[in-house]
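ok so i was messing around last nite and threw this chain in just to see what happens. nothing serious, just curious
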Amino acid sequence: MAQPVYSVDLFSTHVAGPSSPFVTLVPGFVYVVRDIDAALVVGPGYGAQLTISWGGYVIAQWATPSEWQGMLQWRGRSVRSGGSGPVVLQADFAGASISGDVSIAGYQLSLP
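result:
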């Protein structure tokens, strides 16, 4: 019997400066990333880079010039199985002066 599937917040973080926050997703599920939203402010001097990855695979990557602020969005599907072990979902913020918020939403589905 079909059951409703709802998008959930898989990962949300606030950063100030270069960092690599991550979350370890629970094994035993299939995860689907559908939406990535980021609001960033980059200070003077150097540009910045934001990379979203899981299990060593890059989902999305952006580079910005210095003194930039704005919204970055990604819409799509990236699927990973957590059946064989934990899945690490990570946001890498590289840049001399970067701050902002990132939210990643998707589905956590039971394995058949």
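not much to say yet. The domain at 8-110 is CATH 2.60.120 (Jelly Rolls).
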